[in-house]
Amino acid sequence: MVFDERLTIEQKLKILSAAAKYDVACTSSGVERKGKRGYVGNAESGGICHSFSSDGRCISLLKILFTNQCIHDCKYCINRCSNDVVRTAFTPDEVCALTMEFYRRNYIEGLFLSSGILYNPDYTMELLYRTIWKLRNEHRFRGYIHVKAIPGADPALIEKVGFLTDRMSVNLELPTADGLKKLCPGKSREKILRPMRQIQTGISENKNELTLYRSAPSFVPAGQSTQMIVGATPENDFQMLSVAEALYQRFGLKRVFYSAFVPVVPDKSLPVPVGGPPLLREHRLYQADWLLRFYGFEAGELLTEERPNFNVLLDPKCDWAVRHLERFPIEVMTADYPSLLRVPGLGVRSAKRIIMARRTGRLEFADLKKFGVVLKRAAYFLTCQGKMMAPVRLEENYITSRLIGEERKKTCEFENASSFRQLSLFDDMHLEAAPAPSDARKALFGEL
Amino acid sequence: MVYLCESSLEGIFCGVYAVYADRQPLSDCRLSLREDYEPELFCSYKEIPLDPSKAEKVAKKIRNHMSMDAYRALSRAALHKSPERADQILRFIALGLSAGRRIMQMLKEPAVYEIFRMDQYVKNEAHFLVEFSRFWKQPSGLYCGTIGPENDVLELVASHFADRFPDMDWALCDERRKKAALHTSSGALAICTGITEEESRLFDKNIAADCYIKLWKTFFQTIAIEERKNPRCQRNMLPLRYRKYMTEFQP
């Protein structure tokens, strides 16, 4: 291990951002904070992306490690102590200067500070605390801060950090305790879950306190998140999704992130993914995760012990719908919100728009298209005023084959790793154009 | 009859006022922007001067009779680039006068949908610029940036930065419309129109003068994962037309 003291700030930035890039979370959402004179910055609850790197991922925060020194030897990690790379560390002042100056130029929304473990967890956590403290108090920074809680660090330190940050996260790394034992010799499931539980308790206690005293300082107001690596260990999709569901329900997490395994250090206990990182699998997990959080689905509805993996050809919602044709078609004018949400091609926004617009008029398929409904998918599952858009056999194989034709184009692009796009709630960015008159005619007369 | 009004929200509202004052049937009227109007044959037209008190009457009517949401949607739609915007606003108001508070729910109506669509476009572009605008620091300490939006969103974007950087000297220039938002460290925000060629040159980036430009480019390069390279996705999320103003894509 080479520890180089004489690196320039640019060299350090290069090393410590490259070492942090495998951490997925780069969101700046969950907290709304107005600006204030005497301070720099504010925060928007929807989050703000500032750029997109050449892999298509959003850049919202200055994502860096404090140091890439580490006492652990996790087999998949670029910073494992047995890996021969140049080691370095920022000083708290360097991190503050980079954050403030990038922020003022509108490059970033704030800081995402993680770290390898220098000497021991307490020492490292203390360094992170000192950095964040300076940023908030000396530099008067009111932007977004996300800090990793170091498993094994003193709970008192974690608490102090929690009062200065917007979001905290502890990486679960691998979905099962077995996988963790195999790949991360220095870590244990128990050690990871302990700070996670502590942050959860802190958040809920703080909520009570805030209802009593409005001026009480807030603790991790944007909630906590975690991340799991997809495809480094043999767990199936059902196991992954069940773990995620349990984290949402039992640990009150805001987000679970999935990270397709990229082999960066060769190790005989690691798989070598054929055809690159498992991006499609990761994409399906995100789609299903969305269904859990916003669409009222449960993991057990999407996958089972007998069918433990996602359909490669269909997205999880379509896949669920074609297996439950007895519930369809549903009538746009009368269906309740939860049923609308379960229709493929409908999202949170379009379902809300339907509910709003049908109060003042009868809806037709042409209207749905304007609201952002993807009729290519929704047409098989909806009626407007009792009519389907086109005569459709409500039969699983028929609909599946039609939907797959639609999906294949997308999946193909996936395999060529060229069109990956993170799911977004903000589907308005690509509002459908008004339908052509011929489409409206077809919809009106119920013919294809 | 064609009514020609000023292109600001106030100007358009004055046009609406004039249409109603003449008690003409709406189907015979059209409201156009004076600056975009090309005279047509067999068509009489009337120029409507700006009168803030009339505009305020219309605005008040919308806020009280329809809703604050409707008023906000119209004020953003008025920033849309379409030369038809004045007429679209007229049609919306006409429907709103009979529909009242329900107007924003009536997405099915073309007059409402058009305003909804224009409002979305303006909001989205303003949001893009909140994300993608870039400042650089001049040796004088002034942070300045340039944008070139399709719609007239400078004020919307500037109000975001005024909240974010209340104690900073900064300037944001819309080079298409030759106007700039100037913010001083005392907290004042002003919009200046008619920016000259010489003034706009002050905004040209000087890479040597600001050492954080290079650091940001370095970060932008190293944060990408080579194995996941996906230029198509990057292009979907970050449309090419914004890149010419963005530090990380500039040579």
Report on the architecture of this protein.
The complex is a heterodimer of chains A (about 450) and B (about 250). With about 450 residues, chain A is an alpha/beta fold. Chain A is built from 16 helices and twelve strands. Chain A has helices at about 10-20, 90-105, 120-135, 155-160, 175-185, 190-210, 235-250, 280-295, 300, 315-320, 335-340, 350-355, 365-370, 375-380, 395-415, 435-445; strands spanning about 1-5, 50, 60, 60-65, 85, 110-115, 145-150, 165-170, 225-230, 255-260, 330, 380-385. A six-stranded parallel beta sheet of chain A has the order 4-6-7-8-9-10. Chain A has a two-stranded parallel ribbon with strand order 1-5. A two-stranded antiparallel sheet of chain A has the order 2-3. The longest helix of chain A has 24 residues, at about 190-210. Chain B is α/β, with parallel strands linked by helices. Chain B has two domains: about 1-125, no CATH class; about 135-250, no CATH class. Chain B has helices spanning about 10-20, 50-65, 70-75, 85-100, 110-130, 155-165, 195-200, 210-220, 230-235, 240-245; strands at about 1-5, 30-35, 45, 135, 145, 170-175, 180-185, 190-195. In chain B, the strands form two sheets. In chain B, strands 4-5-6-7-8 form a five-stranded mixed beta sheet, with helices on one face. In chain B, strands 2-1-3 form a three-stranded parallel beta sheet. In chain B, helix 1 crosses helix 2 and helix 4 (about 85-100) crosses helix 5 (about 110-130). At the A-B interface, helix 1, strand 2, strand 3, helix 2 and helix 12 of A face helix 5, strand 4, helix 6, helix 8 and helix 9 of B.
* Domain unit count of chain A: 2
Second-tier CATH architecture of the largest domain in chain A: Alpha-Beta Barrel
* Overall CATH class of the largest domain in chain A: Alpha Beta
The CATH H-level homologous superfamily of the largest domain in chain A: Aldolase class I
> Overall mean pLDDT score of chain B?
93
User: What's the SSE pattern of chain B?
Assistant: EHEEHHHHEEHEEEHHHH
Rg of Cα set of chain B: 22 Å
Give the largest interface pair and sizes: A-B, 63 and 56 residues
Helix content of chain B: 40-55%
- The chain-level structural class of chain A is alpha/beta
Strand order of the largest sheet of chain A: 4-6-7-8-9-10
